[in-house]
Specification:
Chain A is α+β, with helices and mostly antiparallel strands. Chain A is built from 15 helices and 12 strands. Classes of the chains: A alpha+beta, B alpha+beta.
């Protein structure tokens, strides 16, 4: 038994050491990127680190040019969610989820109604939340070379230590996944109202043209508001690791005893007791006051807490494989969908575009194609008038007020003869 | 709220394409414009003029 406890302490020490202290900055960055790439494959913009505190209506100020964002996104795999500007007071859940039990507005709005079913409730209850499902991701892991696909859950380093293997292949399954959203029409209305009330604030982020040395056309620096409209949450993560070799190579001297003790096929071992004991070690590793410190006989040898906000449980083990179930205290957001609104002159907002399409470099066509109608007499009068200073702004204001906010290009040569006539009357001929 | 972005326009005659592009570029969000040959009608080449607000050349799908 002493040997078993010693081995398990070694496992716990090893997992904390491997997962944190020895992990270089480069490896940590890779964890973020690889995790994000996996989530991106599911057509979702990844969140890293995982957080509970992200919901539809959160508005972020994006100060990076689109091209630079794409570069950062491709390089890092995710976009840092910084510069939270506001959280829009959204309503409309009751209408959008009409007939769905336990979803409403006000105090019944998600996710609070699931996170804290009653003010006194400690445990979340997402049983009524809309479900989501993610595919199983495969990855390989190596102590020496880092993770070829890294996962920000602690089961992976734990498993690697339990297997006492230098390398392993594995699968990760995101279980108990949920999603909820509001239609972009709702977020559009809310951000429009908010932008009107906060035009002075948004004016700080009007497009600017920085002074540029040398030749070439100076690039305009645009700023965006990113408005979240759907989030994906996960409560449980299953991780299975399959060892490539039974034991690690010579470089693993001093690591814990090999995994034969976990082999349930081995008649000389007591698998049930070992499962229980290892799960106890894992549970204690995550608690601030290890219960078995005294039993170990050396409190100073206990590892620091590793299971922040969740718990890891050994589910299955053989001499070549281990499986873990990691459960977060409450579901965490792993990804989102959003719309970007460019900030224009005067603090006005442009029409929304899909953040995912922008980041993935997908061509964002600006609208449905319309047939060219030719430039009629009114179009021919507007064109030269438009080139005079100040007239473009006048026409834009007029279109906002009386023209359904269509673009100038659509007005000139689209199927809008009556509108062109009215524009000429109001703006060029003048009200007589 | 600002104006809607310009819509793509089909069947634009060759001689008018420049004016259509000019009008589309009045919207500063438009960063790329594709001009794609449509057909020749009565001896006049016609094009589809499509404005983009993200780079269509790095399209992922």
């Amino acid at each position: 038994m002493v040997r078993l406890i010693g081995m398990m302490l070694g496992v716990a020490v090893g997992l904390s050491g491997c997962a944190t202290e020895k992990m270089s900055g480069e490896q940590l960055a890779r964890v973020a990127k690889d995790w994000s790439l996996s989530i991106r494959a599911s057509q979702v913009i990844p969140v890293y680190p995982l957080t509970e505190d992200l919901e539809p209506g959160d508005v972020f100020l994006v100060q990076t040019p689109v091209e630079e964002q794409v570069k950062v996104y491709l390089d890092k795999g995710f976009l840092p969610l910084e510069n939270l500007v506001t959280r829009l007071p959204l309503t409309g859940y009751a209408e959008f989820y009409r007939g769905w039990p336990k979803i409403g507005d006000g105090i019944d709005a998600p996710p609070r109604v699931w996170q804290f079913p009653t003010p006194e409730a400690v445990d979340a209850d997402f049983s009524h939340a809309p479900l989501a499902a993610f595919p199983t991701y495969n990855f390989s892991v190596s102590r020496s070379g880092g993770l070829s696909v890294a996962i920000p859950v602690q089961s992976v380093p734990v498993g690697l230590n339990l297997l006492d293997s230098a390398s392993a292949n594995g699968t990760i399954t995101l279980k108990d996944a949920y999603t909820y959203a509001l239609p972009t029409r709702r977020t559009y209305d809310a951000i429009s109202a908010w932008s009107r009330d906060n035009a002075e604030y948004l004016k700080q982020f009007e497009p600017t043209t920085p002074a540029q040395e040398g030749k070439g056309v100076p690039k305009t620096q645009d700023f965006y508001l990113r408005v979240i409209n759907r989030v994906y949450l996960v409560k449980t993560v299953d991780v299975s690791l399959f060892s490539n070799r039974a034991t690690s190579a010579a470089g693993s001297a001093g690591v814990p005893q090999p995994v034969q003790l976990l082999n349930i096929a081995n008649a000389n071992t007591d698998a049930a007791k070992q499962f229980e004991a290892i799960n106890q070690i894992l549970a204690n590793a995550g608690s601030p006051a290890p219960a078995n410190a005294a039993a170990a006989g050396d409190a100073g040898a206990m590892p620091p807490p590793v299971a922040v906000g969740g718990s890891v449980k050994l589910a299955m083990a053989t001499s070549r494989s281990v499986s873990f179930v990691e459960t977060f205290r409450r579901p965490l957001v792993i990804g989102y969908l959003a719309s970007d609104y460019a900030i224009l002159k005067g603090g006005m907002l442009a029409a929304p575009t899909s953040t995912f399409n922008m980041l993935e470099g997908r061509a964002v066509i600006t609208g449905k194609a319309i047939p060219y109608q030719g430039c009629d007499a009114d179009c021919a009068r507007i064109r030269p008038w438009l080139k005079q200073a100040g007239n473009q702004a006048k026409l834009e204001s007029w279109l906002e007020a009386k023209g359904g906010a269509i673009s100038i290009a659509d007005l000139l040569t689209g199927d809008h003869a009556d509108l062109r006539r009215n524009a000429v009357k109001d703006l060029i001929e003048g009200p007589n | 709220m600002a104006l809607q972005p310009p819509s793509p326009q089909t069947n634009v005659p060759r001689d008018d394409a420049g004016d259509v592009v000019d009008a589309m570029l009045l919207d500063t969000r438009v960063r790329w414009i594709a001009i794609v040959f449509n057909a020749t009608v009565n001896g006049v080449d016609q094009f589809t003029v499509t404005p983009y607000i993200s780079d269509p050349t790095s399209s992922g799908g």
